[in-house]
Design goal:
Elements: E1 13-19, H1 38-46, E2 48-54, H2 60-69, H3 100-106, E3 110-116, E4 140-144, H4 159-167, H5 174-182, H6 184-187, E5 191-193, E6 196-199, H7 207-221, E7 227-232, H8 253-275, E8 282-288, E9 297-298, E10 302-303, H9 321-324, E11 328-331, E12 340-347, H10 351-356, H11 370-373, E13 384-389, E14 392-398, E15 406-413, E16 436-444, H12 465-480, E17 501-502, E18 505-506, H13 512-515
Parallel strand pairs: 1-7, 1-8, 2-12, 3-4, 3-7
Antiparallel strand pairs: 2-11, 4-5, 5-6, 8-11, 9-10, 13-14, 14-15, 15-16, 17-18
Helix pairs in contact: 1-8, 7-8
Amino acid sequence: ITKNRGELGRSPNIVLIMVDDLGIGDMGCYGNDTIRTPNIDRLASEGIKLTQHIAAAPLCTPSRAAFMTGRYAFRSGESYLQVLLFLGGSGGLPPSETTFAKRLQQQGYTTGLVGKWHLGVNCEQRGDHCHHPNQHGFSYFYGLPFTLFNDCVPGEELSLWLLAALFLLSLLATAVWYLPFKLLPTWNCIIMRNQEVIEQPMTVETLPQRLLAEAEGFIKRNVDRPFLLFFSLAHIHTPLFNNPAFAGKSLHGRYGDNIEEVDWMIGKITETVDSLGLANSTLMYFTSDHGGHLEEADSHIGQKGGWNSIYKGGKAMGGWEGGIRVPGIFRWPGRLAAGRVLDEPTSLMDLYPTLKHLAEDTELDGHDLMPLLEGKVARSQHEFMFHYCGVYLNAVRWHPHGSKFTPVHFFTPNFSPPGAGGCYHTKICQCFGEHVTHHDPPLIFDLYRDPSESHPLTPATEPRYAEILEQTAAAVERHRGARSDKQVKILWRPWLQPCCGTFPFCGCKEDTISNN
């Protein structure tokens, strides 16, 4: 889109909005009639809604790496572990990777990221910031270099304790694991402005208001020049917020309250763009990094994870549709027709080539969506999509010309208890050993006739059964030839831990008065 100048005679502004762990069934424009999302619905009615928008991974870190680079996460090593578990680790998006933010920055854009990053900070020593947003094309960063998690709120601990136990494949020295988790609230629950830690531990209660103010402020400061804003919300990942202005207002408890708060925040961003006269010169995009976390619930708050509509599975469940099908909305008044619905397969990885028309870049897995969005072509360029569960190729989606979508699953997670729709005993599904069932032949589904993936196809029910297996097997061989053996280093390294003060005695609070 940067080749197309808006009504101001300059390159268009770009506002990207990503919600964390949002289920595709949580919004009115995607079929929810009990949670109020008028502002998200308005974006859809004034723009284009994608119904087959697919995340490149069902978990935060690999999905976001693919989103930023237009490439499957394995190419940069980010699929080797499902998520980064430590802020004080050397893993992250490698400095050698090129993001769409860096490309736009080179084109003269002012670029900003407000909110969640979760793609690493340091490599060799505290302060080298090799993985930091500033090194990946964002000239301004305010937000969470890590992620929001339960340990950031007293009384809601356990989430990363559980994840660490599940990902720990061999016994490690007790101190190496105990110390970083014992002090998680202080060391990992932080806010940075550019490369400075300005709050440690962060005050979670006021985080949404501060992120919104920063995003609005970035737009207002850059009204006279082309800008890219990536507004990466801390919602709807747990712990859920408990803002008095929204508490008890929805029909779905605290989770519904949080969705309605998200909608209000998106309305404020849209209002800021429109009130400054930037609507016709600004591409707005709305999505989620992956599907909702079905297993997130407790007796006190109730359901804390999202609803993935009629689709099977959710967060961390490999290629099951509920974990990778996400909302996708584009709005650009005067350029994109309002109210259109696209049923073609698209990917979060498509943002990179769409924003930059980077046909000359090698090894891109995404495709430029502008011809599809503008109605110049009717068909997506995605014939095959590959879905991972951790490091393992879990499923392949085939979309032959003029035909249906057929996901092919090589293995599936074992739900617990048996017959449930998720891994409720462990709270998150795993991708190996006794946690999965391998299928030979693979399971094949017809998403048009069976969107819940409940009835596997057979040679008797699908005339092209053998062809589907043959075509996907060939596609897998080609895909595996491009795989990388890069690995993310996940162990906690205290010398890499960001800190305001003298490590390990970290602690500071943001001076919100002087910053507003």
